[in-house]
Write a structure and sequence with these properties.
Layout lengths: L10 H25 L5 H22 L8 H25 L4 H8 L2 H12 L6 H25 L5 H19 L5 H21 L16 H27 L2 H4 L5 H14 L5 H25 L3 H6 L5
Length: 314
């Protein structure tokens, strides 16, 4: 999701919109898990991207000014779309074997990965406290992954692949969002994400990958696919407006409520509830992530002079 600059117009409104977004977001995965019994992961991902892209069209046409399409921008969005498609396919593939709450809990190592990658790629100053929190967070992830790994094998690592992709996607978004309209970014990323999913389906026979051939969904599966796209669109739009209303640093902790909503929906739909060891891992992941967010907010709030005098402070 693109994070536009916040105008800070209404923090309570922004928090409410983000709360609704994270409550809706796991519904994407619930529908995907229901659909994956009859249709493959790439087709589910393609359905999400095409519905989400089409949902952006009315908004784009109602906005003043032309869309910012350019060859340089297109190349950038092709990369972002490919990374997002890989993330989506990896996560949906996980849902065939793992429960939604477990997969999302592992995926939430993404802020930890993003912190480390920001230090390496964007040269952001990261001190020993946040590096320690990252290590603790990975330990929590291991507590969730280990029993899942025993149950399903290497598939338990797919959410980590998805999280890694989203961390790269977030870094690219940080760079591009300074100069481009967020709605245009959403549309173009969805368009190229769909292209990356559609190509292997169209050329599955030529590529010798018959398992990726198009499968005509029945009515029930078609409704599941529509549910994936609609819930993704709604969650995405709510997030855009949330970031327009309140600062990202204020909204970031609310994203961890997605684990709660995922657990609730997983229990209601699939009668699954994480065991005590997984709950411990989830608690550690959330605690480390919240600590990283708190340190970033504290460091960002310091006067420039304080920051310059304490280069290793965070």
């Amino acid at each position: 999701m693109t994070t536009p600059k916040s105008g800070g117009t209404s923090v309570p409104t922004g928090m409410l919109l983000m709360f609704l977004a994270v409550m809706i977001s796991p519904i994407i995965d619930i529908f995907a898990k229901l659909a994956i019994t009859t249709i493959h992961t790439v087709e589910i991902s393609a359905a999400r991207f095409i519905v989400q892209t089409l949902a952006m069209l009315p908004i784009l046409f109602m906005r003043p000014g032309p869309l910012s399409f350019s060859w340089s921008g297109t190349g950038f969005h092709i990369v972002r779309g490919g990374i997002l498609a890989l993330s989506m396919v990896s996560f949906v593939a996980t849902l065939e074997f793992m429960e939604v709450a477990d997969a999302i809990a592992i995926f939430f190592v993404e802020p930890i990965i993003l912190t480390i990658m920001s230090s390496i790629l964007l040269k952001e100053t990261i001190g020993w406290r946040r590096y320690t929190a990252c290590a603790v967070g990975f330990f929590g992830a291991i507590l969730v992954i280990q029993p899942s790994f025993t149950e399903v094998g290497y598939v338990a690592l797919f959410p980590v692949v998805s999280a890694f992709c989203i961390a790269i996607f977030a870094i690219l978004t940080r760079v591009r969002s300074r100069t481009e309209d967020p709605w245009s970014m959403q549309f173009q990323t969805g368009m190229w994400g769909f292209a990356f999913c559609a190509l292997p389906i169209l050329f599955s026979d030529a590529l010798g990958m018959s398992g990726l051939s198009f499968v005509a969904p029945d009515l029930t599966t078609a409704l599941y696919l529509l549910g994936v796209g609609i819930s993704a669109s709604l969650s995405g739009i709510l997030s855009v407006y949330a970031y327009r209303a309140a600062p990202a640093s204020t909204l970031a902790p609310l994203q961890y409520l997605e684990i709660v909503s995922a657990t609730i929906f997983g229990w209601l739909v699939f009668n699954h509830f994480p065991d005590p060891l997984k709950w411990l891992g989830i608690a550690i992941i959330v605690a480390s992530g919240l600590y990283i967010i708190w340190r970033e907010r504290r460091f960002a709030s310091k006067p420039v002079s304080d920051v310059e005098n304490q280069p290793l402070a965070p």
